[in-house]
Design brief:
Blueprint (H helix, E strand, L loop, with lengths): L5 E6 L4 E8 L2 E10 L5 H5 L7 E5 L3 E2 L18 E3 L2 E2 L12 H7 L3 E4 L3 H11 L2 E7 L3 H9 L3 H12 L6 H5 L10 H10 L15 H5 L6 E6 L4 H9 L3 E6 L4 H5 L5 E4 L10 H13 L3 E4 L1 H9 L4 E17 L5 E12 L8 E7 L5 E6 L4 E4 L14 H11 L16 H19 L1
Parallel strand pairs: 3-4, 4-6, 5-7, 6-8, 10-11, 10-12, 12-13, 13-18
Antiparallel strand pairs: 1-2, 1-9, 2-8, 3-9, 14-15, 14-16, 16-17, 17-18
Length: about 450
Amino acid sequence: MTDSTKAFLLLANGQVFEGESFGATGCVVGETVFTTGMNGYLETLTDPSYYGQIVTQTFPLIGNYGVISKDFESADVHVKGYIVRSVCEIPSNFRCEYDLDTFLAARKIIGLCGIDTRDLTKILRETGVMNGMIVSGDGEEAQSIRKALKSEVEKAKLLKKIKSYKIKSAVESVTCNASKIEEPADVVFKESAEYRFVPVRSDGTKENDPVIAMKDGKGKKVVLWDFGAKANIRRELLKRGFEVVTIAGSSTAKEILALNPDGIMLSNGPGDPKENVKIIDEIKKIAKSGVPIFGICLGHQLLALAMGADTSKLKYGHRGANQPVKYLATGRVYISSQNHGYAVKNDTLPKNAVLSFVNTNDGTCEGITYTKIPAFSVQFHPEACSGPLDTGFLFDDFVRLINNHDYFKNFEAKFERIDSIKYFAKTIKNTSAHKKAAK
C-alpha cells in the first residue's frame, strides 16, 4: 500500500482505524455515525439529513450496483466522509452509470475502506456517536497529522480540535437542494410504476392507476417546507395528485399562508432541532392557522417543540432501513426507514397530543397525532426509497386530513406502548428471582 492510498479514521477518544482511501483525498472532521441499510447507499449519500456527519455503512459490501442518478434524494452529497468495509470496483446493474469511487472523487468526498466496520459500530453503540477525523492520501495536511500522532502533546491538541467540532447552520446549508431534481407528476408516477414504487395503502395493497391514486388530492396545493427535504417526499405528494410548492426553510408563516395552501408538509433535515428557534416560532403561527400539517423526521421534532414538547439526543440514533415501529392505534408493527439522532421525549407531550407510533426496540417516540389542530407527524420516513414502503399510507392520511380537518379529532392510542429494553430487563430479573426461589 502506497502513502497515496493510505487512510485512517481518528476518533475523538484517540482510537485509530487504518485502511485504504477511495473517493477524494485530504482530511475532514465530522460526527461519526453508522447506518444499517443493506442497500440504498446512494440515498444515504444524497440525504440532506446526514449533513456534517461521517457515515459508516454496517453492510460490508457497498457500491455493487454503482451510481444511478435517478435514485438521488437531492442534487448534492451531504456527508462529510464515508466509511465502508469493502467498496465494489466493478459494479453491475442495468441502470448503472459509473462507479462509486468516481462519484465521490468528483464531489470531493473522502472515503475510507478496508477497516473493521463491525468493531467501529460496536464502539459507537457502546460510547455513543462521537466526532472523528478521516485522514487520506499523502498531502501536506495529511503528513502533518500523521507526524502529530507521534507526539503525545500534539496528539492531545489534535483530539481537542476533533472534539470541538459541532454541526452548525445545518438547515440553512441544505434547504431547497432536492428541488433541483424536481419532475412533473406524470413523469414521477410513470417512472415509479416501472419499479412498483406506487402508492401503498394501509392494507398493504398498491395503487397502480394514477387517476385513482390522485383522485382525492387533485386541485389541492401543498407547501413543502424544506428543511433538507428528501426528493421522495415530493414524489409521494405528487403521486397523490397534489400541486407541490417547495419553499426554503427560512420562509415565514406569513409568506407560506399567502400561498393559500391546503396543507403544509414539514420536511426532514439535519442537526439539533432546538437550534431552529426562528422556524419553531413560525410553526407556532402556522399551527394557529388551521391549515393541516404533516411532519416527517426533523419536521416531526420541530412541530413537537412548537407545540410545547421537548427533544433530546439519542446515544447513537436510529439510522437504517430496518427499524420496527408500533402503531398504537391498531397495535400493528411496521418496518421503517430512519435517519435521526434526536427524539421527542414521550413524557413531555402537551395536552391534545397523542403518542401514535413508538420504536419497539427502545420505546422512543416515532409519531404524534394532534387532536385539537389538524396535524400529525412521524419520526421515520414513510416515503422510504430505498427501504420499506409499509407506511406509505400516511400520505393518504394526509390527503384525508386535508379533505376533512376533523379526521384525527377522535384519534386514540388503543394499544400499550412497550419498551423492549425495559421489558426484557424485567423478564430477566423475574426469571433470576424465580430460579433462586426454586432452589
